[in-house]
Specification:
Length: 1231
Amino acid sequence: MASSSQYCPRWKYDVFLSFRGEDTRKTFTSHLYEGLSNRGIFTFQDDKRLEHGDLIPQELLKAIIESQVALVVFSKNYATSRWCLNEIEKIMECKSENGQMVIPVFYEVDPSHVRNQTESFAEAFAEHEIKYKDDVEGMQKVQGWRTVLTAAANLKGYDIRDGIESENIQQIVNYISSKLCKIAYSSSSLQDIVGINAHLEKVKSLLKIEIDDVRMVGIWGIGGVGKTTIAKAIFDTLSYQFEAACFLEDVKENATKSHLHSLQNTLLSELLRQKYDYANNKYDGKGQISYRLLSKKVLIVLDDIDHSDHLEYLAGDLGWFGNGSRVVVTTRNRHLIEKDDAIYEVPTLPDHESMELFNQHAFKKEVPDERFKNFSLEVVNHAKGLPLALKVWGSLLHKKNLTQWRSTVDQIKKNSSSEIVKKLKISYDGLEPEEQKIFLDMACFFRGDEKKVVIEILESCDFGAEYGLDVLIDKSLVFISKNDRIEMHDLIQDMGRYVVKMQKDSGKQSRLWDAEDFEEVMVNNTGTKSMEAIWLQHIQKLRLSKKAMKKMIRLRILYIGHFAPDQQLVLANDDSIEYLPNSLCWFDWHGYPWESLPENFEPKGLVHLDLQYSFLHHLWIGTKHLPFLRKLNLSFSGSLMRTPDFMGMPNLEYLNLVECTSLEEVHHSLGCCSKLIELDLDGCKSLKKFPCVYVESLESLYLYGCSSLAKFPEILGRMKPGLEIKVERSGIRELPSSIQYLTHITKLDLSSLENLVALPSSICKLKGLMELNVSYCLKLESLPEEIGDLENLKDLRATSTLISRPPSSIVRLNKLKFLTFEKEDTELGLKDGVFFVFPQVNEGLSLLDFLRLDYCNLIDGGLPEDIGCLSSLKMLNLSGNNFKHLPRSIAQLGALQSLDLSYCKRLKELPDFMEIWNLKTLNLSYCKNLEEVHHSVRFLKNLHTLILTNCIQLKRFPGLCIDSLRYLCLRGCSSLEKFPKFLRNTIVESEIYMLENVMREMEFPLSFSQEIDSLSQRVFSIVLGGNEISLQQIPSWFHHRGMDKSVSVNLPENWYVPDSFLGFAVCYSGHLDGYTTAHLIPLCDDDGMSWELDFFYLSKGRDRSTAIHLFLLPLASLWDTSKANGKTPNDYGLIRLCFNSKIKYGFRLLYKDDIELEALNWDKDENNDDQPTEHSIGTYGGRGKDGTIDDAAQCETVEEAGVRGEVECKLRRGDTAYASSVCNRTIRVLA
């Protein structure tokens, strides 16, 4: 069987995301990408796509080819982009030729529009046909696009025009996750691993996935036998059967490089699908794992554990994990696995499989030549069935002639030592000198590091890193992991370090990576010219002689990471270090402890200098000639007072001075650095003077938080496209006129420049500008009159400024989509007596879809009379303003989906909504002068949210029957004369997420709410409560009553009657914190059904301490066909409810027909004094044995409480005609 390094995926990416950037980049696609990433699905998303022109970059085409799944998000403007059309064409080509899976997602677009190229797709293709009307090849191209769109739209996919976005995304992610795992299981990459199937079957038999307990299985064997390969195959084939899964690679190595709590954070982040630092130390992490994973069914693989701490702090107790969880560990140490745990000892390969594996690597796909047969037998016999040796030696012999085979096999056999590490050294001996250096650097320092970073380090040493890496891969000495990191087998790394350690004297070794060896060399001053590289990840104590490095004249790499100021530094005396090798190419010392570098330090070959978190006051005095220096990082050096002279750094590309809080001035010579790409001075709060900036190469300039910097730097040269500038929260008072030379800038964020008074008119010459943000510029009173010249501007934000009259030219911004002038509160609002006036639209702003003018002190006349000309407007926020009437033309906003008029306390009347047919959300809360809602609201067929909280003058409400309505709030509408009549019909006709009416608190203490969530809980509820009467007794019609944290009820035989069983009625008194879990348990000891119910949701936002909560749980909320294993509900004999705290509860089964229930033989609770005779929903009260309502006591209670109202009285009496009809119709919707 192949070793761990053989198991490499066929695909580089799991998913390629194709999307129209302007439609979905900042919304749906970004959320989808996050969902995929959190699930561990490696997704390619082109964040910087410009989507201009026809040609797709080669790296994008390559990413499509290398992706296992293509997820295509079709949106309204997808077909307007030739880039996107070429992308889908390539995707469908890969589907045909490579079997790539393609999943279309239809985002706010009808699949038939994509399939038949109608509506917006017809418009887009009309434009393409005009463009190519005289081009035969072009028209053929257009026809090809039509063909692939039709084919793609015919595939099984997701139409997400309706529904909740987060739930749609979860559904897509779950589907892709399951498909990837199944594909991985059947893929040739798995099947090509010699002997893998037998190992999988044996490990699966130990795991016993079908049993709902928690188990640990150990995979044990010698190094190189294939433990990791087996564990990875198990993970890939079984992970989709678990709620979450995590494969922690190379625990031994990573625990050494970082800390155990870092591994704990990785484990939790992957299993909880949310990247976060959950723990600061291993003890905290242990508690976090046991607490957060208690109810999750997880699969965890801990690869290569070699210390008891690894198990103790990552999976110390199986009780940490939910039922059905499995933990798999691989180790060379049998004693680390508990005796009670199942252990699979991995055997070495039998002869025939050894020969098969060897031939795979020695001859690849060629048929082995008979002349090599005897040599092959000798190698196989010498390997003794160890996969790693067979693989390495096979790769070593690949493409060699017969003579070379003879000598190489003799060398292999000559090493009679039984240590496999020494046997593997022959592969190292066959490398060229530079390739040997690259290999030793990787084995000693860079295993697990990003390939890109490692290549950069090695190239700084003037190595041919890319070529050398390819050679090492061909020789099977290293491989590239799925996430593009350098990896190698443990024994290969051991062999590399063995080569270095062959020189017993640490000072004479070529590389140091161990802290103790480093201290010995530094204290005793034993370093020699043999030393080439020092790399220390973590060091607790730093002891060295000030001349410790004087003899290390060939040292090219020095890395001392994470040396903190509070750690111990010991020198022979109080002087700083006297000597650093001038041969250094890569110099990293985090927390460099002295005020400057040695004066005699002249590293002419230095490429990278990183001294972040240092105690430097300055680097050196004068000018140093550093012609190759590309990166200088002095960030978080709080004592740094001045920067070096940059004249000797002509090739400097990256300068990082973040949080150098004592720095007051940057040396004027910075303007000579014409190759600068990134310049970052965020948080330099003392910085007062900044030189001119040369921008021809610059991609980013960050001055965020430079609160003492009053002037924006002058601009030199012509900028390249894509420059990003951040100056938020700086002290800049004015912008230079030279800002006009930033011709290619697309985004300019000037937010929170509290001293900025005005913008120069030259800013309006930035024709490429697409986003401008001046929010929280608290002294900014106006925008330039020429603002309309910014012809490509799409996003203009001016939140909380003093702007009260936007220039009239603003309406010429016909590409503008997002515009805000809102004032967040009175303190940041306009001055007294200043009113906001928006200019007449004059049919401009044709693409504007988002406008916020909340709290702008708008009065009558402040809005343009022709506001209805904003034909694309989808979201309009006018909350907190002072107008009494709205312009009549507002009724012409046919595209409007959201209108917010909340806190418009003087608003007296609403416009006619007849033509605003797309309106989905209408917020009128705290409109205290509003007496009625315009009758035309009944025609808003797409309305799903209507909020009228505290509209205290509201008396009348029009009758409605809106299928789409999901949320209505009438809380605090104390003048409302009667309960809305539409309620019953709406419940029957629609699926409502929440419907709520809170009547006048004193006169109507009934709070009536219903929650129906068809995607999860499916719970119907009634809440009865008030201030004048006590409702804290559980109604008598509940069979089982008591006070506890849980209740278990035996279900009668044949309790489930299809079409008649309504559900489980649950009642509790008072306030319930947290969640309730319901478990449906079968008669035999097998998997049960369970569900987490958020009853707490209905209690949020008010005092429910005196309320009775009645819930109906339909069977659908618990029943999961996939877990039923052929059983029916009647095979389940117990239901258990577990509350988060001790409460009064009641429980019973509910049926449509009382007679059917009477026939059941119910086992009565010993503590139940009331014998049930009626099974109605929502009844508070009882019926006599003859079925009549016992109203006397109920009416007396109602009258004493002073409760009036037909609905409330009927409920109190137990008249279920109203409540039952509501509930029965609701249940039919749920069913």
